[in-house]
Fold this sequence. Notes:
Blueprint: H1 4-18, H2 24-32, H3 55-62, H4 67-76, E1 82-83, E2 101-107, E3 119-125, E4 130-136, E5 140-144, E6 149-153, E7 160-162, E8 167-170, E9 176-180, E10 185-191, E11 198-201, E12 207-208
Antiparallel strand pairs: 1-2, 2-3, 3-10, 4-9, 4-11, 5-8, 5-10, 6-7, 6-9, 11-12
Helix pairs in contact: 1-2, 3-4
Amino acid sequence: MLTMAAINAIVRRLERSHASEPGVAETVARINQQNYSLSRTRLQVPRRQPACRHLANAIARAWRVDKWVSGTLGDIMPLLRWQCIPRERKIAVPPDFMTDYAYAQIVGPEGIFSGKDFSMGLFIVGPEQNYPEHEHLAPELYWLLSGPTAWSFDNSGQWSEVREGTVIWNEPHKVHATRTMEIPMLAFWCWIRDINGPYTLLGQPAKPL
């Protein structure tokens, strides 16, 4: 079973390397507020998705960000229940994106630990993919463990290359989009509150999760 010690170690490394960056202190505070006792764990059947074929390459790249985190990710991958993009969002993404995108919750409604208005986990996107512009009520933090990737914000149409190891912080309703390059993107992510709030893909009506 994934232990609190492993979660703590990953979080401490995030905090140590990015403590002064926007969103990190708030995210760490919310992580520490969750209940990780054995009584709050849930048995779940691990599951892979087509995008999981990119994990080995991404974890190898994560070694450049943090060797310990990379090794720990390899250990916990068999425990995770990977999922595809939620059904209500599928209409707005390219068909091939569905075989190159997956996420797994460690904490949250579908995670090993239930969480309290909080989700945390891992996110993988294969090479040469475009996650379209979208926004949501939940404040969101990404710690990019592989890359580089390209990001666009505020519906600007301007793209910037972002290296692995970078933290991305999205305030509520901040429009953002992601493009991967030749390397798959693996990220540690958190939605720190309002996780059941609306999620909007550009040009699509707001939908509750």
